[in-house]
Each structure stands twice: as C-alpha cells, then as structure tokens.
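Supplementary Methods, section 5.1.

A reviewer requested that the exact input to the structure prediction be made available. We therefore reproduce it here, unchanged from the version used in the analyses.
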Amino acid sequence: MLRKESPQTRRHGFTLVELLVVIGIIALLISILLPALNRVKDQANRIKCMNNLRDIMHAITMYTSENKNYLPYCNWGGTPSGHVGWLYKDQGLPSNEQQLSMLSETGVVFGYLKTREVFRCPLHTDFRSPSPSTERFTSYLMNGAVQDYPDNTGGLFTTTNKITKFQPMHVILWESGETRLMNNGPPWNDGSSYPGEWLSERHGNGVRLAKNVAKGSGGASIACFDGHTEWISSKDYDVLVRRDPKVYGPGSNRFWCSPNKPYGAFRLMF
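The structure derived from this sequence is encoded token-by-token as follows.
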C-alpha cells in the first residue's frame, strides 16, 4: 500500500524564477561591497606607503641630529666623491641589475633602518625606466631644495642646507610618478627632483592624461621637514606647486623652498 506524504514533509527544488532572484541579489551585494573592499585595500597600501616615508624621515632626522643639523645629500646627479646621499653613495649608477638593486644599502637611510623594503610603495610594481635608474629600487625622490637645486654650470654643491633653514610644512620627499605614464621624460635618474616634474597618482582613482593634467581622485604620499607625512591629491599638488611666492610671500610655496635662492627658486615646469 502506497504511503502518501503529508504537505508538511513534501519537498521541492528551486524554481527558475527563485534561482534568478538569488543570483540577482548576490550580484547586487557584490557590486555594493567590491568598491568598499577596493577602498579598504587602497587605504591599507596608502598607510604602508606613508609609514615608509615616516621611517625614512626618522632616519634623516637622526642623521641631522648627529651632523650639526645638516641634511644628507639629495643625490642630485649623485654625490661628491666620498660623500653619502640619503639614497646612495657617490656619483653614478651601476649598469649591473643586481648591484643597482642593492645600491640603496649604501645610503644614509639604510644605515639607520637596515631594510630596503622601506624605499618602495607596495603599489609601485610596474616601471619601464631604462636601466640604470633609481626607479628600480625606490618610489620616492628628495626635493632638490636640500642642495638649492644645483644647476648644470657649477657641478655639485659641496655642502647641503641645515634642516633648520626650512619651514616645518615644506616638502622634502614625495612619491614620484611611474615612468610608464610620463610623456616628457622621467624624473628617475638620481635620487632627487625639481618640484613640478611629477607626482604619482597610484593611490586612488587617478589618471594623468598628460604631464600637467590630473584627472580623477588619485594622489601620492609626501613627507615634510618636520617629519610628518601626508597624502595629497594630484589635483591639489598641481595647485600648490604653482603657488607663486612673489604673490603670496616668500616661503608660501611648500614645494619650491630653496632657502638660499630668491622666492625658493620658484618656476613653473609645465
């Protein structure tokens, strides 16, 4: 005799409509959560990058305290023979890739921190600068104001400025842009740069269409002479680096801040 199932025990599968509804809900949840997860990941990388600069500045501050407040050489075209820059020692970059990758171990910062990891942003993984290039082992460049932006006529300066000559909010280090995005020649040739040459947009949603055109919400990490670090959008950077100290007063441009040149040696490089 066949036994009938009661309505309470009868089972059935999902209908096609129910399945499509579930798939739609899952897709909606993913579309809502994915941007948030990407923002969290970007924020973590941004914090790591800023911590790198904070550690570098800690090393530089210790160096100045041991050297009568004088800053290390910014590696503008190398350093005078026998001198050590913040990033590496002496002039010239080796063509050997292995020697190049270890070059940061010869600089002032490594002498205090004993790690190469601190020189690279976790997002700076794709570089196309020709070898030899400091982009191979660092994401950061030092403001040439440390050596008053040496020109090409008198060679390298024999000394650097004291850290006390700069205002606390003036910028000493920044996260420079990837070579693959540049149109007018890379800043990656030594360990320093002019303001206005380039600022990264690897953090956030940013696309630089040309050397002087920032689009989106991208930005980069910077470090100031008082040792603190910031994140700055490329759009704000484009405004600040153009701030004319002849209008706003000496020292008003955080980037163009050479203490021994009129108006910080301000000039537009766009």
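The chain has one domain: 28-261. These observations are discussed further in the main text.
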